C-alpha cells in the first residue's frame, strides 16, 4: 500500500497539491477496499472506526480531487447513492460493471468489445469517443443459484451441493 500512496503523493505534487493526512487516510480506505464500490457514508464510517475525525465534507472534497486526477472513479446505479473506487492509473481501458438487480452486488469486468464500437464510431461517423461507461443489469451467479435451489425445494426436489476444495 505504501507504493500506492507514493504514487498518489507524486500525482498530487505534480499538480502543486499536498498529501495531507486526511487525503492519505481516504486514499488508504479506497485502496484497502479496491474490490468494493464504497459510498461516501461507508468511507466516512470506516474512517470513524479507525479513529479519524475526518469530516464528511473532507471526504467529498478528497473524492472530487481523486476523480479529477483519474485516481478514483464514480459509479451511479440510479439508486441515489454514488459509489467510488480506485482506478488503476496504468490501466488504459475503462472497466465495466455488472449490477445484480436482486442483491445489488457490483462486479467489475473488462472487455475489448468497446474498442470495436469506438473504432466503428470513428470509421463510420468520424466520432472519436473520449470516454464511456457500461453497466449491465441482470442477476448474479449467487442469486441465480439461490433461486434455482428455492425452486427445487418448492417442488420437493433434493438439492445436492458440491463444494470445491
From TrEMBL:
Entry binding sites for Fe cation: 132
CDD domains: Fur_like
Pfam family, one: FUR
Binding locations of Zn(2+): 100, 103, 140, 143
Keyword annotations of the record: DNA-binding, Iron, Metal-binding, Repressor, Transcription, Transcription regulation, Zinc
Entry annotated with the keyword Iron: yes
Cofactor: Zn(2+); Mn(2+); Fe(2+)
GO biological process: negative regulation of DNA-templated transcription; regulation of secondary metabolite biosynthetic process
Protein name as it appears in the record: Fur family transcriptional regulator
Origin species: Youngiibacter fragilis 232.1
Amino acid at each position: 500500500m505504501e507504493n500506492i500512496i507514493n504514487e498518489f503523493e507524486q500525482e498530487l505534487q505534480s499538480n502543486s497539491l499536498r498529501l495531507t493526512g486526511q487525503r492519505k487516510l481516504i486514499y488508504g480506505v479506497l485502496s484497502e477496499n479496491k474490490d468494493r464500490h464504497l459510498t461516501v457514508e461507508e468511507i466516512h464510517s470506516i474512517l470513524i472506526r479507525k479513529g479519524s475525525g475526518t469530516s464528511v465534507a473532507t471526504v467529498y472534497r478528497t473524492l472530487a480531487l481523486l476523480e479529477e486526477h483519474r485516481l478514483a472513479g464514480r459509479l451511479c446505479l440510479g439508486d441515489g447513492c454514488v459509489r467510488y473506487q480506485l482506478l488503476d492509473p496504468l490501466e488504459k481501458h475503462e472497466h465495466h460493471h455488472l449490477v445484480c438487480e436482486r442483491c445489488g452486488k457490483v462486479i467489475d469486468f473488462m472487455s475489448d468489445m468497446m474498442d470495436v464500437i469506438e473504432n466503428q464510431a470513428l470509421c463510420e461517423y468520424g466520432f472519436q469517443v473520449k470516454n464511456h461507461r457500461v453497466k449491465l443489469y441482470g442477476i448474479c451467479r449467487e442469486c441465480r443459484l439461490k433461486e434455482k435451489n428455492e425452486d427445487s425445494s418448492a417442488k420437493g426436489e433434493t438439492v445436492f451441493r458440491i463444494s470445491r476444495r
